[in-house]
Amino acid sequence: MARILVKGGHRLDGEVRISGAKNAVLPMLMASLLTDKPCFLHNVPHLKDVTTTIELLAQMGAEIALGDRLGIHINTRPVSHLKAPYDLVKTMRASILVLGPLLARFGEARVSLPGGCAIGARPVNLHIKGLEQLGAEVDVDNGYIVARARQLKGARVVMDTVTVTGTENIMMAACLARGTTVIENAAQEPEVVDLAECLKTMGATIEGAGTNTVTIQGRDSLEGFDYSVLPDRIETGTFLVAAAMTGGRVHVHRAASHSLEAVIEKLRETGARIETGPDWIRLDMEGRRPEAVNVTTAPYPGFPTDMQAQFMALNTVARGTGVIRETIFENRFQHAVEMQRLGADIRLQGNTAVITGVEALKGAPLMATDLRASAGLVLAGLVARGETVIDRVYHIDRGYENIEEKLRQLGADIRRLPAVEAA
Ligand code: EPZ
């Protein structure tokens, strides 16, 4: 398996350009199933999850061509195989996002249950419940969700828990339902808003995206889209934390500064000086050691759970003690055990981690367990003395485009090691 070698101790200083958002491009690729007209996406990040989604759509029969400059052409007119198989779904849970569009356009879908993952059980019961409220008949058979609906009908859907992809699945299905759908307790993430904007260019009528109540007027059919993916706010936040931890500075281009208020506020609490523009963010730590901060994750506009591991890494070398509470997923502290191998002082108590900053971490071999945990381990390696080797970095390739190249541009000593033949 591929590994990453980091030699710590370098202060980051430079500029970096942010790629398109993973958690926006995935639902948009699935939204192409809602129309038989050609669709075109710009600013598509080169990520494993995008490749997996292209493979999934192609298996269904879609025609997909890579355009110029990060563009993708998708034509789902030929789609006839209405199935998302286990071998693909188990590598990418977001495959569940084909369920709503397939049901809405074709009236049926067979989607493998995603199964658990490293950070939690991550059930999809609210996706199923919402689609049933739109009139779908859903069974679970032999590990597959089997759904049918002659014609979805608009309904009022109250989500018991705020769910990002649950909101997106129902919103996409509702675009072709007969009548009006109101989603209460909807997710407000910027990626949900960007998906709604993309659906509107297809002719969908959607109001309230970005608030907790989204109203969709169903249509008989939708046009194609020609849309550009918004910048990845989690990639942006990851580079800002990397600069802050190393006492350095970074100018982030094509950064969605308006969707990172909670993260920017926390970084200012660590002592970082931050300026923001319409599509850029400049952070300067002026050589200072960060102050420890307290973080509680929450649905947007609260502090994003996808930035939790990165702030744990920052707290391991900060001045003072920081408390991190993870309220979204039940098992999202696996990076803590790995950081302890570097000498971090982290005490875990249920969904709470108490981190007391140490003068210095010491490099060691580590194991990545999930996408954002891997990012946290890379950041810890940037400040650890000596060498840190992170194994199973396929996790990181799912959500970060060329992360070591971008960090090298900022002055990090980081490179990818060839996979070691299994002993
Ligand atoms: C999305 O996952 C993101 N993925 C995740 O990013 C992100 O961490 C998460 O939202 C929270 O912000 C994509 O957008 C592709 P949820 P999602 O449904 O939609 C529970 C990353 O690193 N729940 O909002 O799967 C669930 O167990 C990834 O980029 C149910 O109980 O998350 C969790 O506790 C990781 N039943 C909570 O809701 C359901 O039917 C929030 O999960 C659905 C969710």
Overall description:
This protein has 423 residues and is an alpha/beta fold. The strands form 6 sheets. It has a 4-stranded mixed β-sheet, with helices on one face. A 4-stranded mixed β-sheet has the order 2-15-17-16. A hairpin with a 2-residue loop joins strand 8 and strand 9. Helix 6 packs parallel to helix 7, helix 10 packs parallel to helix 12 and helix 11 runs parallel beside helix 12. The longest helix has 13 residues. The radius of gyration is 21 Å and the shape is elongated. The protein starts with a strand and ends in a 6-residue tail after the last strand. It binds ligand EPZ. Ligand EPZ binds next to helix 1, helix 5, helix 6 and helix 12.
Tally the beta strands.
Answer: 24
- How much is the average pLDDT? 96
Distance, first to last CA: 12 Å
Please count the helical segments: 14
Q: What fraction of the residues are assigned to beta strands by DSSP? A: 15-25%
* Major sheet summary line: 4 strands, mixed
Helix proportion = 25-40%
What would you call the structural class? Answer: alpha/beta
Question: Which strands sit side by side, in order, in the main sheet?
Answer: 22-23-1-24
Distinct ligands, ions and cofactors found in the model: ligand EPZ
Structural Rg: 21 Å
Low-confidence stretches: none
Specify the overall morphology.
Answer: elongated
